[in-house]
Amino acid sequence: MPKQNLIAAFLLSLSLSSNAARATDLEVLHWWTSGSEAEALGELKKMLKNKTDYQWKDFSVVGGGGQNALKVLKSRVLAGKMPAAVQLKGPAIQEWGKYLTRMDSIANEEKWTSMIPASVAGGMQVEGHWTAVPVNVHRVNWVWMHAGLFKKLGATMPQSIDELFALAERAQKEGIRPFAHGGEPWQDMTAFEEILLASQGPEFFQQFAQLKPEALQSDKLKHTFDWMRRYSDLLPKNRKGMSWDKASKEVIEGKALMQFMGDWAKGEITMAGKTPGVDVLCLAMPGSGQAFIYNVDSFAFFDTQSDVTKKGQLKLASLILSREFQEPFNKKKGSIPARVDLDMKGFDSCAQASMETFRKGTLLPSIAHHMALPSKQVTAIQDLVSEHLNSRMTSEEAMRKLKAAINASR
Predict the structure, then answer these.
(1) Is the pLDDT of residue 2 over 60?
(2) What angle (nearest 5°) sits at the alpha carbon of residue 210, between those of residues 258 and 361?
(3) Which of 12, 371, 385, 390 is the most buried if burial means most Cβ atoms within 10 Å?
(4) Residue 88 class from Cβ within 10 Å (0-12 exposed, 13-18 middle, 19+ buried)?
(5) What is the mean pLDDT of residues 389-401?
């Protein structure tokens, strides 16, 4: 064979072997980039590598509470270059439904409906077909409190939002920073929905989450904005651009007394070598009772038209719902398993309390974390809430602007 033909054949073999390697890559788009999030996700990457012949190809997008990642996803889909799996949740799964792979074969084989609650399973399906799998369940309406500072104040545990704010204002008078709070709009929205639930109750929360006109015009909404103003007066001024995990670190290190944040904050507590429920106390937002604002993280699988990729997607989905993954992942992430048939004995006291309420309490889809409304409407509400919190806008003006913003987003 002539030399040039040998070279050509050699180059072709390299190309084919390279393509074969790339064929077994599963590109995964996600926004888990904090320390505890990345460590938790490492469990899945490791399992995919050790238990299958596929490799995880990481595609992480920082910031925006997932909104930045969704913008990247849109550009990729328009270009016809869809990732194999994408971190999606809530109505967004339905919005992207026509692009998603049907996973019914593995769902029926492994009997997913017997291990996942109907309230969660319904969100994973498009027109009755499984297109996504839940990774975990987060409870949003938590307050995290530094145990040492709380003890120093000699206070009793607050049982209502009034008592909670009285404690915060007392802490401020004694030179203790009442709240840690970052500078991202989604953090403002998280605080808003916690305060909304605690001050106005689950029934009004549901009405607001459904954008009922009577809720948007009610005194209860005005009072919620009044509470938000009281909250803003207790926040540090130099928080612009601060990420949620840095705010959590302030509570962990005793630089602030409390933080309103979902239980993903527990991942940061654990990673810092502290014990949730001991070093940093966890209490359901006082006044929210047995209500559980849920945020379910999940991965949806996009139809890339590749049979090799589809086989990999089924394997990845199976791994995500396996006992071997659900337990270590959720311990590191701070969440509870999406499967209700798992034993919680190995989890910390905060997680055990969370699972008990999840099984028995009033379940409310998170507005802030895109479980209740389409992204466009969430963004409209979030922008207004953030504008109000970071200005001297009155409650009445906030209500007028919110109504206009929601109408524009419909």
Answers:
(1) no
(2) 55
(3) 385
(4) buried
(5) 97
| Calpha distance 221→273 (Å, rounded) | 40
Residue 35: how many other CB atoms lie within 10 Å: 13
Helix/strand/coil percentages in the chain, nearest 5: 55, 15, 30
Q: How confident is the model at residue 21 (pLDDT cuts 50, 70, 90)?
A: very low
How many secondary structure helices (H) and strands (E) does the chain include? 19, 14
Position 51 pLDDT exceeds 60: yes
Mean pLDDT of 143-167: 97
CA-to-CA distance for 335 and 358, rounded, in angstroms?
Answer: 12
pLDDT at residue 36 tops 50 = yes
Q: Over 90: is that where the pLDDT of 26 sits? A: yes
Q: Token pair of 209, please?
A: 């989450």
Alpha helices in 3-128 (DSSP H): 3-23, 35-51, 67-78, 91-95, 104-110, 118-121
Residues contacting 192, CB < 8 A, separation 6+: 224, 228, 368, 385, 389
Nearest to 301 by CA among 52, 27, 24: 27
- Annotate 358-374 with three-state secondary structure: HHHCEEEECCCCCCCCC
Helix (H) or strand (E) holding 376: helix 375-389
How high is the pLDDT of residue 329? 93
Q: What is the pLDDT of residue 64?
A: 67
Encode burial over 101-124: b for 16+ CB neighbours within 10 A, e otherwise.
Answer: bbbeebbeeeebeebbbeebbebb
How many CB atoms are closer than 10 A to CB 274?
Answer: 18
For residue 37, pLDDT beyond 80: yes
CA–CA separation, 342 and 331 (whole Å): 13
List all residues 6 or more positions away from 322 whose beta carbon is below 8 Å from its beta carbon.
47
Task: Give the closest residue to 267 by CA, choosing from 242, 244, 290.
Answer: 244
In a 10 Å sphere around its CB, with 0-12 CB exposed, 13-18 middle and 19+ buried, how is residue 184 labelled? buried
In angstroms, the CA 133 to CA 342 distance is 16
Nearest one of 299, 252, 261 to 279, comparing CA atoms: 252
Angle among Cα 51, 138, 106 to the nearest 5 degrees reads: 35
At which residue do the structure tokens 């500072």 appear? 149
- Residue 260 vs residues 5, 57, 90, 242, 281: alpha-carbon distances, Å: 67, 34, 22, 15, 12
The pLDDT confidence band at residue 23, using thresholds 50, 70 and 90, is low
The answer to whether the CB of 132 falls within 8 A of the CB of 301 is yes
